[in-house]
Amino acid sequence: MDFHHLKYFTEVADKKSFSKAARTLHISQSAISRTIKALEDELGVVLFMRNAKAVELTDAGAIFLTHAKRVVFMFEHLKMDFENEFKLEQGTVLIGLPPITGAPVFANLLGAFKQVYPQIELDLYEHGSKKVGISVQEGLIDLGIICTQPKEKDFESFFLDQDPMNVIIHRDNPLSKEKTIPLKKLANEPLVLYRDDFNLHDEIITNCKKIGFQPKIVFETSQRDLMIQTAVANLGIALLPSRLCPTKETAPRVYESVVVRPLVEPKILHVLYVIWKRGHYLSHAAQLWLDFVKNRTRISANV
After folding, report:
1. Where are the transmembrane segments (predicted)?
2. In Å, what is the CA distance from 34 to each residue of 29, 146, 240?
């Protein structure tokens, strides 16, 4: 028994005629007759009383018609119901991002998305870029934000944002008098960096080695506030993206103790990319988030 058996049966019952049902279904009358006979043989009952003038349902046929109509209706509406449910703007998106991500930028992005799609839940997981990349590859999360250009063979991606690195120095340090800080001037300074599971950690060390020195790292952490407080205590110099640095307006008490200066020679950029596993299926909710972020990124780039 398949859908065509049920469809032919309900059509004959509705038209009370094999010939009329055949014309409606655009098949031969003999094909319908054979299908109904096969259905009766499978069920072990007679479904129709046949005579020269009309076709009438038997008692068994009337009972079977109730069930058959339900199945035919569900089957015929299956595609429509699926598409309607699939296109519903709901679901959950799992997003991994480093704590170093520009908080105001990302918070505004999430807030704007939730206004447009209030029924979509966003679950955020904070890890270093390296762990975010691994989690995306292993399918543990849908999407990731990482702070380095992704490998094309592993990920699909698009550029999200960039931010120059700054140096946070205690006011008692002679370097605080400089307007900009060349990286080479940090050769003999104690540095506070993000942990080695952050791509920015590797980028800073690589740039130090390129100009001829191994940095003196006194402290590694994933906590931005701890990095800043280490500089406030004059225990080390912190390197952070400019958006994460304290300002006189946002942190007046901190700003009494430290100064923030641009890092130059070389200028190191903290970049952000959105990634997802190459060739991996994305849910409708995840695709909506991607499309929303891409659109916002294009708008920002054109402003």
Report:
1. none
2. 9, 63, 78
